[in-house]
Specification:
By secondary structure, the chain is an alpha/beta fold. It has one domain: Vaccinia Virus protein VP39 (Rossmann fold, 3-Layer(aba) Sandwich), CATH 3.40.50.150. The chain contains nine helices and ten strands. It is globular. One of its GO terms (molecular function) is methyltransferase activity.
């Protein structure tokens, strides 16, 4: 009987420790925990965010953890079908069913058989087909707006503190539309590797260098995504 009680106590104690120290991540490779650590060290408890190419409220989301912890932000998801989940699950956020581009217009949006690969880039869409396992299911006309236009309308002209970008082929276009001298995020998480089924994706070193030159420190890299923090704030 004593041995049974000891085992029960040990199990209860073990479960308590697990509950106290476990960390939940929704990102593809733990990016949200890295970003959370950065903001905690900057004494920012509930950072605002803008998630471009948000895809899903929780699945491989870089912002779900922050939402659950009390942050609010803007989710940009151009796929009309995927967008419905944000209306249901992220009611406190601003959810916008558009794409981001370098001007306000309407563009072809390629719906891929794996929706994580949906893209406004015709080149990227046909590259996915060349990989052999993906098809273009449909091409939809979707409204596109500039990032500055969205921030002016939905964030009172103030850039959210955390920028997450997964825009499949147009990430660089979005980054280069930002005026980093006037209005910018504190932390950026952006996909910096080209898609490859074989694991031979190429790292976009020029994009990484560009962001660093705009005043950011490359804090972490998960191979798929690079995470940057505003250097002047981190090294104060």
């Amino acid at each position: 009987m004593k041995n049974i009680l000891k085992r029960i106590k040990k199990k209860v104690f073990s479960n308590t420790l697990e509950s106290e120290f476990q960390k939940i991540s929704y990102s593809q490779s733990g990016e949200d925990l890295i970003v959370k650590y950065i903001f905690e060290n900057l004494n920012i408890k509930n950072p605002t965010y803008i998630d471009i190419g948000a895809h899903h409220p929780y699945y491989i989301s870089n912002t779900a953890l922050f939402y659950q912890n009390g942050s609010i932000g803007i989710n940009i998801e151009p796929d009309p079908t995927l967008f419905k989940a944000f209306i249901k699950e992220r009611k406190k956020d601003v959810n916008v069913n558009i794409g981001i581009g370098n001007k306000n217009e309407e563009l072809d949006f390629y719906i891929i058989s794996s929706t994580t690969l949906n893209t406004f880039s015709k080149e990227e869409a046909y590259n996915y087909q060349k990989e052999g396992n993906y098809t273009i299911k449909s091409i939809e006309k979707i409204k596109v707006r500039t990032l500055s236009n969205v921030i002016n309308e939905f964030s009172n002209g103030i850039f959210p503190q955390f920028l997450s970008i997964d825009a499949e082929g147009i990430d660089e276009l979005i980054i280069k539309s930002i005026d980093f001298d006037k209005n910018f995020p504190i932390v950026i998480c952006i996909e910096t590797i080209s898609f490859s089924n074989s694991g031979n994706g190429l790292k976009n070193k020029e994009l990484i260098k560009y962001i660093e030159q705009k005043g950011y420190l490359l804090y972490a890299d998960t191979n798929i995504n690079s995470i940057f923090v505003r250097e002047s704030l981190w090294r104060r």
